[in-house]
Amino acid sequence: MDRALLEALNGERAQRRAAVVVTKIASGTQRLVREAEITADPLSEAIEKTIRSGKSGIVETDDGEVFLNVHLPPARIVAIGAVHISQALAPMAKIAGFDIEIIDPRTAFASAERFPNVALHATWPEDVLKERPFDPYTAVCVITHDPKIDDFPLIAALKTGCFYVGALGSRKTHAKRVERLTEAGLSPAAIARIEAPIGADIGAANPGEIAVAILASVIEAFRKRKMFAERRGETEAA
Fold this sequence. Notes:
InterPro entries: MoCofactor_Util/Proc, XdhC_Rossmann_dom. Pfam families: XdhC_C. By secondary structure, the chain is an alpha/beta fold. It has 2 domains: about 5-70, no CATH class; about 75-235, Rossmann fold, CATH 3.40.50. The chain has helices at about 5-15, 45-55, 85-95, 125-130, 145-160, 170-185, 190, 205-225, 230-235, and strands at about 20-25, 30-35, 55-60, 65-70, 75-80, 100-105, 120, 140, 165.
């Protein structure tokens, strides 16, 4: 790999954006395809499939075989709320291959004793997001039941195009949430992206089961996620 291509690839990785290095097997020539460029690329279908699966491999083309080497940002789950559900979700997320972070300004809940070996931020979401903003490879799970904590990260997640956005609460609670988000200027289409009640509908009845339901939804959303151009249209509408 030449220096210019490597620097361009590292730039995409630093910004947590997907990229694919396309190498012609016969000649060894290489080129970089950024996620934002996929739809215009002649190998768009194969590259999109590679990015969705996260698996590199050889593809047969009219010009011969090419190797698609995919580089994806580590998918992460950000849970807003250091509650019992988060305690169950954290180890499950790691087993499933997701990085996970917990944000909660309530220091009585956000403690290392309750969340050992987990990236924990015992401060307000708006403060954390200044240094660690959301991106399209982030799933945001809002589970505090407190609008003062929940609403800011929900708005940020929808505007950023996070691949999954879910919020805990009853239909009545969510209806009030929709009113607040509408007043904040979000479009109905953007608000409709929130999965509420959060998690797959499996009849979950306790924190552990709710965590399983959330993780199931996150995995489904990640594997079926839209590509950059589609997400861009949604975030512009927000």
